[in-house]
Design brief:
The chain is mainly α. Helices cover about 75% and strands about 0% of the residues.
Length: about 300
């Protein structure tokens, strides 16, 4: 073999280690992906298993309620049928829908104006005002439950649906204002100013230009308000005493079994599934808008 041929063939063996390094790198990346998806699957299983066990228990009856079987041997919808035949539960479900809907609409209406003012107007003490508004969300409801009970009794709105709206609104409105203020800051001022130049009033520019662009923020704030009002237990059980005005969370605490000392586990789990499914459906339907609303104001690279 000539020296020229030997010189040209020398680099060929060096290409094999490079190929091996590339293969090992790809294997490491695959292992990382497998471990990542395994961790995601484990977290999802950990989070979803309690809800599955809730559904599993709601499909059991009789002696099956005390068993720990992963799959119910004889699934039945008797528990669901019994709760919808109970007028107290259907009334509580109606009350929760009414109170949560009114609270959400008022929170979005008032919060949109307040959030827009905090985002666009310049005035002294704006940061302090926003801090005070947000501090209300850290206030424990138990601190105002007893005073509200006395005050509501004196006003004559105790044990009414109307009496549940103001305290619910007091705790949902601060978060609504904060979310909408963060989202309004991301909308360029030039759009509303262009509408003003075209002859629109400030309210028309807000309603026809700014509000449609703020739809993700409105959906996020509205859904958070609705979920809080739907799940509230302490204020609801403190300010109501009869099934005619009681929402779902406190109504579940008054479920009774067929016997005096029987725990109605099947009907409670069935009712819990019924009141949880709408919230899960809303989150899945508006998932993209919720993510857009929660990430408003984040630093973008």
């Amino acid at each position: 073999m000539s020296p020229e041929v030997a010189t040209e063939a020398a680099p060929v063996p060096a290409a094999r280690p490079r190929a091996r390094v590339g293969q090992e790198k790809r294997r490491r990346e695959r292992r990382k992906q497998v471990l990542l998806w395994a961790a995601v699957a484990a977290i999802m299983l950990f989070c979803l298993f309690p809800f599955y066990w809730l559904i599993n228990t709601s499909l059991k009856t009789g002696q099956g309620l005390s068993s720990a079987e992963i799959v119910p041997p004889h699934p039945s919808l008797d528990n669901y049928q019994s709760i919808f035949e109970d007028s107290n539960f259907t009334t509580a479900l109606r009350n929760s829908i009414i109170v949560s809907a009114i609270t959400t609409v008022l929170a979005l209406t008032i919060g949109s104006f307040a959030g827009y003012a905090l985002a666009r107007l310049r005035f002294r003490g704006k940061f302090i005002m926003l801090a005070i508004i947000l501090s209300i969300t850290t206030f424990p409801p138990i601190a105002i439950a007893a005073p509200l009970f006395k005050f509501w009794t004196d006003l004559g709105i105790y044990d009414t649906l109307l009496g549940l709206v103001p305290p619910f609104l007091a705790f949902t409105l601060p978060l609504t204002v904060y979310v909408l203020a963060s989202f309004f800051k991301e909308i360029p001022k030039d759009l509303s100013e262009a509408a003003l130049v075209d002859g629109a009033t400030h309210f028309q520019a807000f309603r026809k230009v700014v509000m449609p662009l703020a739809a993700p923020g409105l959906v996020t704030a509205g859904l958070l308000s609705f979920i809080w009002a739907w799940n509230e237990f302490l204020l609801a059980i403190t300010l109501t005493s009869s099934p005619s005005a009681r929402p779902v969370p406190p109504a579940l605490a008054f479920f009774t079994g067929s016997q005096k000392f029987e725990v109605p586990l099947g009907t409670i789990t069935a009712a819990t599934v019924v009141v949880t499914v709408p919230l899960v459906a809303l989150v899945l339907i508006f998932q993209k808008r919720i993510v857009a609303g929660l990430t408003a104001g984040a630093v973008k690279g």
